[in-house]
Amino acid sequence: MTFAALSHLDWLEAEAIHILREVAGQCANPVLLFSGGKDSVCLLRVAEKAFRPGRFPFPLLHIDTGHNYREVVAFRDQRAAELGERLIVRSVEDSMRRGTVVLRHADEPRNRHQSVTLLEAIEEFGFDCCIGGARRDEEKARAKERIMSFRDEFGQWDPKNQRPELWNLYNARAHKGENIRAFPISNWTELDVWQYIERERLALPEIYFAHTRPVVIRQGAIVPVNVPASGDELLNVPRADEKILDLRVRFRTVGDITCTAPVESEADTLEKILLETATTTITERGATRLDDQTSEASMEQRKKEGYF
Length: 308
Prior knowledge:
The longest helix is centred in the first third of the chain and has 19 residues. The protein has eight helices and ten strands. The chain is of the alpha/beta class. Helix 1 packs across helix 2 and helix 6 packs antiparallel against helix 7. It has a six-stranded mixed β-sheet with strand order 3-2-1-4-6-5, sandwiched between helices. Strands 8-7-9-10 form a four-stranded antiparallel β-sheet, with no helix packed on it. Strand 7 and strand 8 form a beta hairpin.
């Protein structure tokens, strides 16, 4: 294949493969963050192309809030088993039992507390690099990230204290206790992700496609009424003035049930999702991540505390 024949997806994939191989070459004990979401599904395919037929030179890690969607958790386990790769799961609920995470109230979203559990997992296994599926187009704090993002010995991110990245030269060196967060698909957009999923025929959790789900409308957002994967607890309990509706929805991003909202949609195929993504005027996280709506829980603040 000549350079002229390469599509923009080929270039993005080649860059991501190069970054993954740089991580494998420079880091002693990396790990790939895999939640079962669409971005990490793309990362797994890139890792296959970078390292197969050998095994991945890193395990997979998921930080589970205990309030994740059943469909996504089941898909996570199935995909790791199909690949034959080691999957490590650490839970925010374990941190709660240890007392390192204390909720202010029972209904507080746990997403931001994943930082604590992640830092505990990094210390437990001695990981020197965490490979994540964050993209710069997701959110303004994400846009400040380097591809190799340096974190200090406390797991903290300082956007003003990052290493220069010239051309395709990446520096993943870190002292003991420090950590690198590597983001191989930083330059991808949401549309790129969906185009790649279509091209590679990647399986996804079914909640990414339009389906009927019980929801309530709360402050302009569609809030799902769900039972999480880890128990029989009902989450997002309707308030006295709220009526449960059965709406046709899909998820553009997935996370903790208490802070991830779907969008109303009839897109039940990849072709329809691609068209909807190309024509929407609402950002991916703009109306779907309820925990991004307050300054206290802003992405930049969470990242400074050790978030992905």
